[in-house]
Design goal:
With about 500 residues, the protein is an all-alpha fold. About 80% of the residues lie in helices and about 0% in strands. It folds into 2 domains: about 1-210 and about 270-480, MFS general substrate transporter like domains (Growth Hormone, Chain: A), CATH 1.20.1250.20; about 215-270. The protein contains 20 helices and no strands. The chain is globular. The chain starts with a helix and ends in a 19-residue tail after the last helix.
Length: about 500
Amino acid sequence: MSDSVATATVAVSDERHTNRWVVLVLVCMAQFMVVLDSTIVNVALPAIQHSLHFTVNSLQWVVNAYTLVLGGFLLLGGRAGDLFGRKRLFLIGVVIFTVASLMNALGTTAGMLILFRGVQGFGAALISPIALSIVTTTFTDGRERAKALAVWAVIAVGGASIGLIIGGALTEYLSWRWNFFINIPVGIAVVTVSWRLLPRMAPTRSHGFREFDIGGAVTATAGLMSIVYGIVGANQYGWTDARTLGFMAVGVALLVVFVVIESRVEDPLVRLGIFRVRTLRAADVTMLIVSGGMFSVFFFASLYVQEVLGFSPLRAGLGFLPLTAAIVLSAGLAQRVIGPLGIKLTALIGLTVAAIGLAMMTTISAQGSYTTEVLPGLVVMGLGLGLTFMPLTMLATYGTDADDAGLASGLLNASQQVGGALGLAILSTLAAHMTTSHLAGLGRATTQLDKATAAVSGYRAAFIAGAAMMVLGAVLLALMINSREARVDQAAVPIPLDG
């Protein structure tokens, strides 16, 4: 008891001497690097392929190696922060991420780049859930936390589109290597300043490596990685291929073993009781579904403006700037309306608006215009995402104890990454099928216009499916949380689930 009192006293003392908004800036800078690197290399892939002699099939692993390791280790990263100290693990994650970025920038072979992209993903798996748990445990007042999470939502969603802009500019005017060099000064600054200014964050309980749930850690991480690996390989091998089904089956089996282990060990990696929190369950399931729809915009809209409209990488990246602006605007609006409207209604409005934005993008054509067929949908989609991600983050983290903040953050981030990978794989398969069917139905030699029209038919199908995912997310959220739920933050300024 005396140890816990002493720890609490130190934490309070540290908090008094540290500006909470400085803490927010530091962790958001680190999170920005993580989100940026999920998209920044997309527009640089052709240059990377030419420079390091990637094959067509191996090039996808520049993106997938990062996604695979990040998705697999998120749960472990979030819980490790709870058990071994958030500041310590956060700094370790930033160091790993920064060093891996340097090695990627200096990469001389395809294998080296893929390897260190995976290492980057491991560093990101430590940074992202721990950074969010630092935010939720630092901002305990309801209204201040709403403002902080509005900033977090902008970083979490807007950073992806900014990555396309920065990646396009760096690739076009400097080199693809600068997509990785750019992380180094940011990482050094975050580590240096965080070492001095972040408050000491002791583990939530006394926990040594000997007592650590190794079995749970291994089965959870291996299970998630196996599922993500099966998902990202589905585009290449097909959904019914034995390789795809095998990896996904192994992943599911490992997660079943993980649940059995967690139900029996004294100090589990994941306390299964956390899933009794209805708001957490609802937020994670919704995030899993809507992330697929969100990722479809970045992927297919980027392909459309470059492959069909003929945009350069930089111009394509700049084309997503209105989306980012809309997200910033609506995230700021969300933290103002969430009080009177409630978290649930705000999220439902956001999901509905995002679905409308995706549906608007089905008007694209082979001889279309960015201004009339892409821009309006991007803006509406951005307005919806800003109203969606902040409430979902609040739902996923407000109903849990401080001891489980890292775990709750890891679960939410894992839902986003796995959902994004699964959704993109499904929509890519759908788009490819529609494109192939369109060409096969012509019954004659195809022209360039025919090929562009066929590709556009696939993109349209993906946007329709993405909109359907948003609608499904809204329906499930409405069903999983009702107006009789307790208020999300009883100890702070009350913010209702329903207005």
